[in-house]
C-alpha cells in the first residue's frame, strides 16, 4: 500500500474502536460490560493486521511528521501485543475490583494510540503530543480504582511528577529548536552532522532536558522515584501496561531522537547516558533484593531493565541498537504481562500488601501457574533458552561491537545480581510449604490465554530469535 | 527601545513569578500569576507573535485564571498554614535548584544572540492557520485526541457514579 494517508491507519483504527467502546458503554448493562473488553481486543487485532499491510512500504508522510519505517511498525506491534494481553488480563480483574467501566478500555486504546504516535513521530511536536496522550491516559488509569486510596495516591504522584517532567521535555524541545531552527528529526540530524548549528550551548541544554524528560518516562536512575509507589498503588493490570507499553513507547521515542536526530553527536552524549545506565542497573537490582512484596520487586526490576535497555541506545549504532532494543522490549512485554497476571491472580481482593506467603508452595497447588511464573523469572534474569537471555545477548553484543567493553561487563555483573531475587521467587514456589488458609480460585479464560501466549512468546524469541531479528534489519529508514 | 521594553517586561515577569511561589495567600499568588501572564503576552508582541499574545491573554489570563481563582475561593484556600517540606530538605532543594539555574544561565549566555533568527510570517493569524491545517495537520488532529482523553478522565474521576 503506497498511499501516504494510510500510514496512520493503525492509529485511526484504535481511536475508532475506543469511540465505539465509549458509545457501546452507554447501551450496556453493568454485567455486560466485560464485552467491551472484547470490542477493544478486536480493535487491537484489526490494528495489528493493518500494521502488516504497511510493512512492505516504509515511507514518510504528512509533510514529514510521520514515518512508517520498520522501527515504528515493530514498535506498534510491541504496544499492541502488550495492550492486547493487558485487555485479556483486565476483563475479570475489573469486575473483581468493582471498577468495571467502559472508560478503562477506551483509555487503554487511546494510550496505545499515543504510544504509536511517539514511535512514528518524525517531528518533535508529533512525539510530544503522542507522549501527552499516552501520559494523561495512564495518569487516569493509575487512579482508576477511585475508591482505593493507594490508587489515587499513585495517580496523583504520577501526575504531579509527570507534569514536571513534561515541562522539562518541552523546554528541551524549545532549546533544540533554538539551536537548530527546526523540530524535524531528519533535518536536525542534517543540521547537526553538517555542523551548521546556531548555538552549540543551547543544543547541550536541550539534550540535557530531553534526557531528563525521557528518563522520567522510562524510569532511569535519578528520575525513578515515582516508580515503586505508582506501580504498587495502580490497579495491577494498569501496572502491567505501564511496565511494558509505556516503557516501550518511552524507549522508542528516546531511540528515535538519540539514534537519528542526535546520532551525529553520539560521542558527546554517551558519557552522561553511560553513567545513568550504570547507576540505574545497580540501583534497581540492589534495591529489588530488599523487597518483600512481589509487585514492588517487579517495580524495581523494571528500573533495572530500563538500565539494560539504555545500553542499547548508548551503543549508538542505528541498526544494531534499534534492533536489539526492540527485540528486548518485545521479550520484556511478554514476560512482564504474564508475571503481573500471576500477581493479579494471587492477590486477594482488597488486599494491597502481599508478600512471599501467597507464592509458597504454588508448585503443589497450581503446578502450571508455578511453571509460567518460573519461566517469567528465568526470562527476566536472562537465563537461556528464554527471550530475556537473547535480548540481553543482543544488547551486550551491540555494546561490545561499539567498544563499550566496561558497560557490557557491568551489565553482565548486574544480570548475575538479579538472578538472586528472581530465583528466590522460584525457590519459594517450589520448596516452601503452602499456607494453610489458602482459598482455591479459578483462572479466567483471558488469563489462561495470556499465560499460554506469553510462554510461547518467551520460548519462541529465546530459541529462534533470528526470524524476528531479520525483520529488524535497517529498521530506521531515516538513515537510508 | 525594544531592548528596554524587553528587559522591563522580563524583569516584571521574573519578579512576579517569584512572588507566585513565595506568597502565603493563595489569592495573591493567583494575581501575581496573572501579572506574569500579561508580561509574557507583552514579550510575545515584542517578538511579533501577535496571535500568540492575544491567545495568551484570552485563554491564560482570561479563562484559566478565572478557573484558578474560582477554585481557590471555592476551596477557601486562604492561608497556607504549613509548608510542605521540613527546613533541611527544603534548603537542599532550593540549593540544588539554584545551582541548576546558575548552570543553565551560564551555558545559555554562551549561546545568546546566536539562536534561531526570527522568521516573521506575514499576516500571522492567517499564516498560522495555513500552517496548522496543512503542514501540522497530524499534531493538530492528535491534539484533538488529547483533549478527548483529558475530558474522559475528568468526567470519570469527578462524576461517574458507582452504580
The oligomeric state of the chains shown is: heterodimer
Name the chain pair whose interface involves the most residues.
A-B, 44 and 29 residues
Number of domains of chain A: 1
Distance between the termini of chain B: 64 Å
Q: In this structure, how is the largest beta sheet of chain B organized? A: none
| Number of self-contained structural domains of chain B | 3
Strand content of chain B: under 5%
Shape of chain B: globular
- Topology of chain A as a string of helices (H) and strands (E): HHEEHHHHHHHHHHHHHHHHH
Average of pLDDT of chain B: 81
Tally of DSSP β-strands of chain B: 0
User: Low-confidence spans of chain A: pLDDT under 50, at least 5 residues?
Assistant: none
Can you count the beta strands of chain A?
A: 2
The backbone outline of chain A, from C-alpha atoms, is globular
SS summary, helix count of chain B: 6
Could you explain how this protein is built, in words?
The complex is a heterodimer of chains A (480) and B (163). Chain A has 480 residues and is mainly alpha-helical. Chain A has one domain (4-479). Chain A is built from 19 helices and 2 strands. A two-stranded antiparallel sheet of chain A has the order 1-2. The longest helix of chain A has 32 residues, at 149-180. The mean pLDDT of chain A is 89. Chain B is globular and about 45 Å long. The mean pLDDT of chain B is 81. By secondary structure, chain B is an all-alpha fold. In chain B, helix 1 (2-22) packs antiparallel against helix 2 (26-46) and helix 2 (26-46) runs antiparallel to helix 3 (50-74).
Keywords:
heterodimer, A: 480 residues, two-stranded antiparallel ribbon, B: 163 residues, mainly alpha, 6 helices, 76% helix, globular
Q: What is this structure's SSE topology?
A:
The complex is a heterodimer of chains A (480) and B (163).
Chain A: H1 9-27, H2 34-54, E1 60-61, E2 66-67, H3 70-97, H4 102-120, H5 124-142, H6 149-180, H7 185-194, H8 200-218, H9 227-233, H10 236-261, H11 266-289, H12 294-315, H13 318-346, H14 362-365, H15 367-381, H16 387-401, H17 405-431, H18 445-463, H19 465-471
Antiparallel strand pairs in A: 1-2
Helix pairs in contact in A: 1-2, 1-4, 2-3, 2-4, 3-4, 3-10, 3-13, 3-18, 4-5, 4-10, 5-6, 5-10, 6-8, 6-9, 7-10, 8-10, 9-10, 9-12, 10-12, 10-13, 11-12, 11-17, 12-13, 12-16, 12-17, 13-15, 13-16, 13-18, 15-17, 15-18, 16-17, 16-18
Chain B: H1 2-22, H2 26-46, H3 50-74, H4 87-111, H5 124-133, H6 137-158
Helix pairs in contact in B: 1-2, 2-3
